[in-house]
Amino acid sequence: MNSFQGKTVSWRVSDGTIELSLNRVPCNEIGSDTLVELEKFTAELEALQHEAHALIISSARKEGFCAGADLRELYERSPALAPAQRVASVRDFLERIHRVMNALDAAPLVTIAAVHGVTFGGGFELALVCDLIIADRMARFCFPELRLGLIPAFGGIPRLRRDLGNAVIRDLLLTGRSINATKAHSIGLVSQVVGEGDALRVARTTASQIGKFDRQTAIAAKQFIKPIPHEELRHEIELFCDLFMRPAVEAGLRKFVQSTEALPYLP
Amino acid sequence: MRIVAVWQDVVMNTLDQTTNEILQLAAAHFDVPREHLNAGDDFFKTLGINSLQALALLTRLEQHFHIELPDYELQGVSDFRTLAERIQSRL
């Protein structure tokens, strides 16, 4: 189907471009519902890619692109399970989200993330699967996972390693600080910084420009320059599952979920 | 002594100016009258903002002052004057 309206995402094909829009209150946290609909989207990609040359991923939420994994869901389903079941449940979620991310990463389309506002954790990782990131000047990027005793687990570290220098990655990961769009542009993460509210428009213009080029050449160039780091992605899942079983993680998740602090998103 | 006094005036003026610019930016960003905001106000309470809105203000401040201000520098900071001091140290 060339259009879909789900509970958390929607998509449509327009002028040779697939537009995938995230829309879940409050800021597109990725939990089970979003995962199921993203799986549905990647299953449809095989058919959709015959109608399009580009894919734009954006958010319909004014708060931002995506605040990352749904930590509340992760925390609330954990106590009901025995430790072995808990890690099996997390592993299953990660395996599924990795299949989605890898499918988007390798899609034979030019993919563009049009981001604004909060682009944190899993949301940052979703942007990183795209070939280009076009950022509203009010966008902020962050990997806050270490404050929970975890690492990013939707493929973030291997994909950052593919795109950026190691020192920059250590800064983002180990301090957990957020950076603005200008900084993200200066380190080579963001392709273009645009005015407030203008990211989707510029992404459409960019997709239109890309459509003028030979499709097969674009696909060949992408495959040549953007290999998927499968081995590191596999290692990331294993490391996350090891870390997830430590008591500090449950304490960190509980603190985040129950937090009444003014700045719970900050490290 | 006079040099010290003049230097202190400059620093004080600059900090006041920075504070005033923050108050103007916050008023414009959150659409509240500038005269409702004071340097000693708790900006979370006065503006009624959450952490994500505070990050938007941080982005606005970084752009205006052409600085990078790591968000962990804002831990424990809730009033405009202290925020101005943190920014001042990076100008």
Description:
The complex is a heterodimer of chains A (267) and B (91). By secondary structure, chain A is an alpha/beta fold. Chain A is 48% helix and 17% strand. A 7-stranded mixed β-sheet of chain A has the order 1-2-3-4-6-8-11, sandwiched between helices. Chain A has a 4-stranded mixed β-sheet with strand order 5-7-9-10. In chain A, a hairpin with a 3-residue loop joins strand 1 and strand 2. In chain A, helix 2 crosses helix 11 and helix 3 packs antiparallel against helix 10. The N and C termini of chain A lie far apart (42 Å). The model of chain A has no long low-confidence stretch (mean pLDDT 93). Chain B has 91 residues and is an all-alpha fold. Helix content of chain B is 64%, strand content 0%. Chain B contains 4 helices and no strands. In chain B, helix 1 crosses helix 4. The longest helix of chain B has 29 residues. The radius of gyration of chain B is 14 Å and the shape is globular. Chain B starts with a helix and ends with a helix. The model of chain B has no long low-confidence stretch (mean pLDDT 87). Chains A and B meet through strand 10 and helix 7 of A and helix 3 of B.
Draw up the topology in text.
The complex is a heterodimer of chains A (267) and B (91).
Chain A: E1 3-5, E2 9-14, E3 17-22, H1 32-48, E4 54-59, E5 64-66, H2 71-77, H3 83-106, E6 110-115, E7 118-120, H4 122-128, E8 132-136, E9 140-142, H5 156-163, H6 166-175, E10 179-180, H7 181-186, E11 192-194, H8 199-210, H9 215-225, H10 230-244, H11 247-258
Helix pairs in contact in A: 1-3, 2-11, 3-10, 4-5
Chain B: H1 2-30, H2 43-47, H3 51-65, H4 80-88
SSE order of chain B:
HHHH
Could you name the ranges of chain B where pLDDT drops below 50 across 5 or more consecutive residues?
none
* Spatial strand order of the main sheet of chain A: 1-2-3-4-6-8-11
Helix % of chain A is: 40-55%
Quick one: biggest sheet of chain A? 7 strands, mixed
Question: How would you describe the shape of chain A?
Answer: globular
Radius of gyration of chain B: 14 Å
Structural class of chain B: mainly alpha
Q: What's the total number of strands of chain B?
A: 0
Calculate the mean pLDDT score of chain B and round it.
87
Q: Specify the number of helices of chain B.
A: 4
What's the N-to-C terminus distance of chain B? 25 Å
- Compute the CA-based radius of gyration of chain A: 18 Å
**How many β-strand stretches of chain A?**
11
Oligomer: heterodimer
